[in-house]
Amino acid sequence: MVTLLLKKSYRHKDLKEVKFNDLWNGYGIFTTMRVIGRSAKILFYKSHIDNLIKSLNKDHGSRVAYNLAEDESPTHVKRWISTGSKQFDYICANRKNGGFPEGRIVEIFGPPSIGKSHIATQIARSTQQMGGIVVYIDTENATSVENLHMLGVDVSKRFVYVDTHCTEEVLSIAESTILKAKALNKDVPLTIIWDSVAASSPKAELLGDYDKETIGLQARAISKGMRKITGVIGQTNSLFVILNQIRTKIGVMYGDPTTTPGGKAIPFHSSIRVKLGAGQQIKDGDDVVGIHVSAKTVKNKVSPPFRTINFQIHFGKGIREHEEIFDVLRKHGEDTVLEHYIVEVAGAGQWKTFNVTDTRTGEVFIEKKFRKAGFDELLNDKEYGPYIDGLLERAMVKVMKDPSSIDIDTESYEEIKSLAAELDETLFEE
Predict the structure, then answer these.
(1) Which of 303, 319, 335 is the C-terminal boundary of a domain?
(2) Is 10 a residue whose pLDDT tops 50?
(3) N or C: where does the chain have the smaller number of CB atoms within 10 Å of the terminal CB?
(4) Is residue 421 assigned to a domain?
(5) Residue ranges of the alpha helices (H) in 265-384?
(6) Going by DSSP bridges, is the β-strand pair 239-245/247-248 parallel, antiparallel, or unpaired?
(7) pLDDT digit string (tens) for 95-119?
């Protein structure tokens, strides 16, 4: 069915909607509209579009024009790479089994010691699990092989570590890596991680004296490189993950006083921007073993933006996904009906319960008791897993509508900020 608007005039009240059965595929579109004050009849054929697309592609020597009604969009996301958190995957993709999209640029930014590198490592592990290649560009000189091993990254297979501090080199290496890796096998997932922008310097700054003026060099270098590399990433369906820190703007009294170093090019070219926030520490006795983290998608071109979730990062273990899922289900998934079944996750003591009830008979045919630490066994169980998956999807819809806030541990944040200022006075300055 094709819907047309017959314009008698340019006034909205005179627009008349007329429906034609398969006229487009048959002969074309016949309509009238006001052209320079007079009624004009226009017959527009589908073949005109096809010929135009063929002509454009021929003139430019490559595929540049598409008919999106018949052709797959060049911006279509073919694969998603998991972040290690089902909640995180959901807010990025707005779909089950989502994550970060291939063919796009993703920026993760936040204060120091908030878990940016942990999330990047989880992305690296997910890429390898899909049979892909990871290129880790470390400009902070802080990557630990032991930590990579603990988080499940295999450094002996499909992992390339790059040690450089030059911004121009980072972007050049990223571009050449993408082209060379995809030339060998186009279908292999490729993730490039830049850790981080704040620790990189333009070539002129590295070679110059301390008192030499270098204002704007970093921003110009990144802007030029991002313009060049964005198209390459899209054409090869690679994923470029950029880690960045935050700086505090001096003298800002209203609005958000924070910004990210490197200029405006990275925020502009990124399809997804995730801002991490500091939360309460996780302690085992007197030892700090992890941290609560809030993640907000401040920009998202593949899903609705401005969504917030909370999760835990345990040092050396990464994101505790099963505990995170349990908390979401207990809070937002009570008495959820899936087809003919009521699925419920409950329990406030040491022992929790997972129940599935048939609404037609009232029979409870699944009743499982478990401890929270053992919830991962239920997630991977063939009998229980599908019910939990469906329940989680419904619960995430509720979370997106009314995201719960996290208690910000301002004292810990100020402590981190003071420590960082001692090491680098300009860390929290623009």
Answers:
(1) 319
(2) no
(3) N
(4) no
(5) 265-269, 321-332, 375-379
(6) unpaired
(7) 878 999 999 999 999 998 898 999 9
